[in-house]
Amino acid sequence: MADTVSKHRAEFAFVQLDNERALTSLRDELRVARGIVDRSRAEINALQTLVDIHHQEHKALCEMLERKGVPQ
């Protein structure tokens, strides 16, 4: 009986160790994924800023052409 209990405790300890390693690995992956998401958000914001600037420039150019009587 004592051997069975020792065997189960050893198995439990190994399973627990595997679970802790898996959890650490998942946390590392999550940290990397969050970094990727943060960088992607920054890129999206930068691109949106460029889109806004180009839109404003396009609008200004269209208004300038309209004032000069150039059909669009």
From TrEMBL:
Domain of life: Eukaryota
Name the UniProt record assigns to this protein: Uncharacterized protein
Organism lineage: Eukaryota, Sar, Stramenopiles, Oomycota, Peronosporomycetes
